[in-house]
Amino acid sequence: MPMILVADDSQLDRTLITEVLKQEPLDWLVEVVESAEDAISEMKRVAYDVVITDIMMSGLSGIDLLNHVHRQPHRVPVIVISGQDDQKAVAEAIRMGAASFVPKSELPSRLGETVRQVLEAAHLKRNYQALIRCGQEIRFKFKICNDPSLIQPFISLLQDMAEGMGILSDEARTRLGIAVDEAVTNAICHGNLELSEDEMQEVRRRLHAHEQLEAIADRENTAPYCERCVHLSAAMSHEGIKVVIRDEGNGFEPDSVAADPAHRGITLMQNLVDKVSYNPSGNEITLVKLSDTHSASKSAPSDSSVAPAV
């Protein structure tokens, strides 16, 4: 039975919302409070399925309530409601993770539909997470252009799958993410685009500041750089995760570089994951992060369980 929490400091709007939700031919339990502070207290007592909040309230705002919800381990979907003069606040709420919004002028016609939509999406997500928990082995491959904006989505996918399967701790997922970030950035910038070390430093600074990457833009339409891609493959099981990153550049001599302590990236990766290896031509790197259980014994994962077909 879905439980819905409504936070609004207007008695008139609270009554309207309650009446609208009662008209739905579904078995919903609705709790109404007058403020974000009361909503936070109520959420400590009851696990709600959806929160509906006005954006503009006395005391803590709906944005403050949204921030509180998203700091919790269990992220309840939040629907924001607003007057027509609150569009900037609505846009901010959506950017910060609100599931949806309904203008107050459209509450009678849109609120019930929106709640149903959000509940269905949340239900599908829970089923998806339950399916991932049942996973025994997951493999995937990507072929990406020299677009650094795709690095973080790839890392997020790895971390989400690892979390769902219960393979890695929070700390281990973060360490794997940093190593993969380093490796894919190197594949794009060093391998495919052949940027200098100075150019790489500027790219890294701008990349994490979400600024324009001029060094990459200068080469993205120039042959042979623009013709090259990065190949990403990953496989995970309960033994661990294996990620293979291959560029189409000229490569390097792994033995000479790996022995040079000046190469910060290699040193970083070697200390963040359990195993780092290169192919003979130096244009492919393999990262292995053992599961928390296997990491304790440092046993190497078998090829049949975590090695992707590349």
- The count of β-strands is 10
Query: Can you list the strand order of the major beta sheet?
Result: 2-1-3-4-5
State the fourth-level CATH superfamily of the largest domain.
Histidine kinase-like ATPase, C-terminal domain
Mean pLDDT: 85
Class by helix and strand content?
A: alpha/beta
Number of domain units = 2
Oligomer: single chain
Task: Offer a few descriptive terms.
alpha/beta; Rossmann fold; 47% helix; 2 domains; 310 residues; 13 helices
Q: Care to describe what's here?
A:
With 310 residues, the protein is α/β, with parallel strands linked by helices. The chain folds into two domains: 130 residues, Rossmann fold (3-Layer(aba) Sandwich), CATH 3.40.50; 170 residues, Histidine kinase-like ATPase, C-terminal domain (Heat Shock Protein 90, 2-Layer Sandwich), CATH 3.30.565. 47% of the residues lie in helices and 19% in strands. It contains 13 helices and ten strands. The strands form two sheets. A five-stranded parallel sheet has the order 2-1-3-4-5, with helices on both faces. Strands 6-7-8-10-9 form a five-stranded antiparallel sheet. Helix 1 links the parallel strand 1 and strand 2. Helix 2 runs parallel beside helix 3, helix 6 packs antiparallel against helix 7 and helix 7 packs antiparallel against helix 11. The radius of gyration is 24 Å and the shape is elongated.
